[in-house]
Amino acid sequence: MRSLILSALALAVVFELFPLVAAADSRAVPRDRAEMQLSFAPVVRRASPAVVNIYTRRVVTRRQSPFAGDPFFDRFFRDFAPPRQSVENSLGSGVILREDGVVVTNAHVIAGAVEIRVALADRREFDAEVMLADEASDLAVLRLRGASGLPTLDLRPADTLEVGDLVLAIGNPFGVGQTVTSGIVSAVDRVGGRRGGGYFIQTDAAINPGNSGGALVDMEGRLVGVNTAILSRGGGSIGIGFAIPSDLAAQAVDSALRGETRLLRPWAGVRGQAVDAGIAASLGFDRPAGVILSEIHPQSPFAEAGLRVGDVILTLDGAPVDSPQALSFRLAALGVGGDVEVRYLRRASERTARVALVAPPAAARL
């Protein structure tokens, strides 16, 4: 009997302590079916209607020599055959940013197209015309003819992203239809990419041919970037994809609505290089930061604000500038008009200036 009483007391103690043990355990038991099925579906439902498929047709002229591929005769008879025209079809993706049918995509998606057809997620289709095509940024803006009341995406500034944030890539890879892939932000200020000289968000969300121009969205369904390129040895995704920040896409749309056919960027009129470890040591910096100016146009707005060769630009409106590409991107994202606060160093002395955001003069070479 005594052993039964002791066993009962032990069980009572266990049941009394169980809530405390459970509370101390960091793992939590799902309380309902919804918590057992965590999903990106709400984000996809919100964002996917504003992502479109883009189909283009372009006429390509080729010469087909009967000696093509011959190691000896090909060089002599390369232009022997008359030119022949053929029609090429290609595909890509795009994002609706205005209810009246203004769509942003990649410039390479619509390059040379004689016909552009855009299909929405609800299977409606529209003919599209090019409002703006900017090869330097690889951005293009289309207008869908006869469109109104279309779903759109809100934009999230790229500077609010952090490495590790969850993102979804939405597009039409390989023409299979709208597809969603998930990943994280791998880097927020990646310089280079397939076209070099760009300023990109890097992600490991799978991006494949056909995803170009599609949306990279956050967990609230806001556009953070326009998918544009991948680093790949075989043509498929290996987890290194690049997206153009949404800030630049917004400026492309603004430029298009003003009637510009190219993205209008503020003129810097300067040349410089990133401060590396060697330059930082020579300048007495504790670590590399900023862009050191090596050349300034006499009429540059930076020169008019008092900056000189040898000054090190640190930030624009508080955003870091660690490469010439970052400087170009920051200016382009701000757009023409108004001014920007520049923080810079001169002989280890920190200074600030207001630099006007102006369009480049016709004769400017910097």
Write the layout of secondary structure elements.
Blueprint: H1 2-24, H2 33-36, H3 41-47, E1 51-63, E2 83-98, E3 102-105, H4 107-110, E4 115-119, E5 125-134, E6 139-144, E7 166-171, E8 179-192, E9 198-203, E10 215-217, E11 223-230, E12 241-245, H5 246-257, E13 270-274, H6 277-283, E14 291-296, H7 301-304, E15 312-316, E16 319-320, H8 324-334, E17 339-346, E18 349-356
Antiparallel strand pairs: 1-2, 1-4, 2-3, 3-6, 4-5, 5-6, 7-8, 7-10, 8-9, 9-12, 10-11, 11-12, 13-14, 14-15, 15-16, 15-17, 17-18
Helix pairs in contact: 5-8
Please, could you describe this protein's structure?
This protein is an alpha+beta fold. The chain has 2 domains: 40-61 and 90-264, Thrombin, subunit H, CATH 2.40.10.120; 270-356, PDZ domain (Pdz3 Domain), CATH 2.30.42.10. 20% of the residues lie in helices and 36% in strands. The protein has 8 helices and 18 strands. It has helices at residues 2-24, 33-36, 41-47, 107-110, 246-257, 277-283, 301-304, 324-334, and strands spanning 51-63, 83-98, 102-105, 115-119, 125-134, 139-144, 166-171, 179-192, 198-203, 215-217, 223-230, 241-245, 270-274, 291-296, 312-316, 319-320, 339-346, 349-356. The strands form 3 sheets. The protein has a 6-stranded antiparallel beta barrel with strand order 1-2-3-6-5-4. It has a 6-stranded antiparallel barrel with strand order 7-8-9-12-11-10. The longest helix has 23 residues, at 2-24. The radius of gyration is 27 Å and the shape is globular.
